[in-house]
Amino acid sequence: MLDHRITYHVAAPQPLPLQRLFVGKTRHDAVTVLPRLFNLCRGAQDIAARIATGTDVPAKLSQTAQEEALRDHVLRLYVALPQRLGVSVDMPATWAGKPDVILTHAIGAIPKTLDDFQAWMRSSKGLAPIFAAIDAAFPNRACDTGLLHPATDDMLFSRAPMENSVAGRHADHPLMQAIADHYGHGPLWRVTARLLDLHHEPEYRDTPFGAIVTAPRGVYGLRISCETDQITDIERITPTDHLTTPDGILERSLHILPDPSKLPLLMDILDPCTPITVKEANHA
Fold first, then answer.
1. CB within 8 A of 279, min separation 6: which ones?
2. Cα-based distances in Å from 110 to 63, 97, 101, 269, 284
3. pLDDT tens-digit profile of 79-131?
4. Would you say the pTM of this structure is higher than 0.90?
5. Residue 1: pLDDT above 50?
6. Alpha-carbon distance 207 to 72, whole Å?
7. How far apart, in whole angstroms, are the C-alpha atoms of residue 146 and residue 185?
8. Measured between alpha carbons, how far is 217 from 45 in angstroms, rounded to an integer?
9. How many angstroms separate the CA atoms of 124 and 273, rounded?
């Protein structure tokens, strides 16, 4: 029997030359410039730069990062995905800084069982039409990546395949485990994690491996070495780096993407923080 599986070519943009931009500069330069240079998840970037340079993290910065993450989830769930699916859903009138309002509007409360989750998807309540459309678009465990290694501090900078994603952050939640068992570690599993993440407060820490900060797409890492006040080395790692790594989330998802027309929807769900080009390579 011929294998008609489609092969895809993935092209990610070249990363900015951080060594050339920052080596020889000061700690203050890193704290000032990095969040502006990478302005998605700016609060998380700012926190990481401060931790990596030994600079104090103001309490209000954590609140800023949490508000940014909430906005990221709301825009993905209520704007980007409905537009892609051609499904209309109402958005709460006042939601900024109010995760309770969003969660109640979206789903009421997090279902305790898979049966409850499926019953909600069959309803027309909140975001149920979006989740039902995603379920229909990726049937039969389509784009199931399997269980990847979690994004642990000691592994983060290795760039090995791992589940550096918002879904990975909530993989141990009972609903996520039930969805993974029934539907696989696929698009429905990944988008459900955004509901669980609405109340997530940014976590950040200085580790022997570098500064680690949680962000809307997963975990962000930054390490900066200095002599006196001068930067001698710098390295950053993002969820998108792990998304696009060989045998990572994107490659595994594409390997069992049954319908090429669903590629734009898949990319909207995976949500890379930089433009990623994916094209059919051949029809092997």
1. 8, 9, 11
2. 24, 19, 13, 20, 42
3. 999 999 999 999 998 888 899 999 999 999 999 999 999 999 999 999 999 99
4. yes
5. no
6. 27
7. 6
8. 13
9. 31
**Hey, what are 119's tokens?**
């019953």
Would you say 184 and 134 are in contact if contact means Cβ atoms under 8 Å apart? no
In this structure, are residues 95 and 72 in contact, taking their beta carbons and an 8 Å threshold? no
Query: What is the b/e burial string over 150-183, where b = at least 16 CB atoms within 10 angstroms of the residue's CB?
Result: ebeeebbbeeebbbbbbbbbbbeeebbebbbeeb
For the domain made up of 7-282, the CATH class stated in words is: mainly alpha
Rounded CA separation 38/92 (Å)? 29
In whole angstroms, give the CA distance from residue 178 to residue 277: 32
- The domain spans of the chain are 7-282
CA distance 257 to 48: 35
Which class for 148: exposed (0-12), middle (13-18), buried (19 or more C-beta within 10 A)? buried
What tens digit of pLDDT does each residue of 11-43 get?
888 888 999 999 999 999 999 999 888 877 889
